[in-house]
Backbone:
């Protein structure tokens, strides 16, 4: 089994914080998403990036992985899980099935192997219907606005003349508008075939909203940081801002403060209760450099304004 260095996959340092991890994942997810990138190998790269993010975004998984990384960082294809290894994070969510999108390395450490064995035993004894399967389905925020039909491919085990084989299945799945992250979609009878004329199992699609480079999700609302120069914040300005379905005008009042929120109705995500809103968050940004002329202007402003934002400290 090949050791996976998730930090290298994302191009991150070992001490990267969650914000850095999230930002890098957003960029790579958009770059390699198979719906956007038709280049050979893009889909595999997307899965690899998603796997790395799944581990490093979670505090418990990351701590366990860091320990294992010290154990196996010098290994290559011959890496093995230590015989006494047992995940202690308590949040395993994946079955170690052959059709998993994630690698054997991930499943060896973080999959719920007890659940997997239970499913395998039930299958071998022919006591139940065909095995149910879960797989993740990445969906862009833009796609969740109006719904989308997405092609998927996966493999399920089947028994032919007493021999265990794998069947490749291809489906076009209609993803309804307004789907949420972690939402489950059940496709009845699309799991493994049953034995002795029993019912086939079901396929459960777990919706994963791909992080957007500009918008954060808060329920059915979207959050957008709006950077302003100090003079734009002081004087007020009318600017164009992006939304998921085009640009709109936003009037920013004079003397707005950093962190102040302005709401744009109906430009969020769909939900059962209606359309969410786009919430813009003002972020005042100082120019990265100062010339002699601008420094003098800032000094003149300081002398004229005589404003002290720290009076409450007195």
Residues:
């Amino acid at each position: 089994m090949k050791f996976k260095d998730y930090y290298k996959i994302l191009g991150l340092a070992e001490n990267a914080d969650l914000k850095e991890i999230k930002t890098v994942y957003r960029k790579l997810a958009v770059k390699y998403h198979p719906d956007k990138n038709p280049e050979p190998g893009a889909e595999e790269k997307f899965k690899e990036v998603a796997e790395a993010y799944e581990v490093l975004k979670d505090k418990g998984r990351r701590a366990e992985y860091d320990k294992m990384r010290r154990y196996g960082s010098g290994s290559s294809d011959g890496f093995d899980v230590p015989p006494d290894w047992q995940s202690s994070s308590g949040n395993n969510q994946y079955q170690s099935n052959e059709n998993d999108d994630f690698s054997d390395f991930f499943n060896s450490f973080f999959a719920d192997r007890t659940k997997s064995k239970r499913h395998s035993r039930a299958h071998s004894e022919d006591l139940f219907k065909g095995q149910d399967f879960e797989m993740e389905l990445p969906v862009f925020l833009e796609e969740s606005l109006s719904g989308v039909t997405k092609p998927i491919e996966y493999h399920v085990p089947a028994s032919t003349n007493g021999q265990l084989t794998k069947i490749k299945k291809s489906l076009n799945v209609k993803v309804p508008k307004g789907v949420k992250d972690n939402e489950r979609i059940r496709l009845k009878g699309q799991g493994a075939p049953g034995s002795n004329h029993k019912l086939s199992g079901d396929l459960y699609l777990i919706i994963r909203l791909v992080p957007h480079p500009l918008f954060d999700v808060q329920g059915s609302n979207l959050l957008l940081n709006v950077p302003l120069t100090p003079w734009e914040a002081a004087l007020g300005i009318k600017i164009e801002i992006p939304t998921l379905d085009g640009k709109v005008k936003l009037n920013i009042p004079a003397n707005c403060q950093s962190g102040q929120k302005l709401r744009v109705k109906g430009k969020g995500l769909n939900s059962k209760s209606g359309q969410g809103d786009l919430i813009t968050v003002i972020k005042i940004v100082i120019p990265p450099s100062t010339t002699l002329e601008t420094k003098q202007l800032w000094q003149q402003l300081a002398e004229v304004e005589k404003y002290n934002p720290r009076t409450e400290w007195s």
Notes: The two ends are 63 Å apart (CA to CA). The chain has a mean pLDDT of 81.
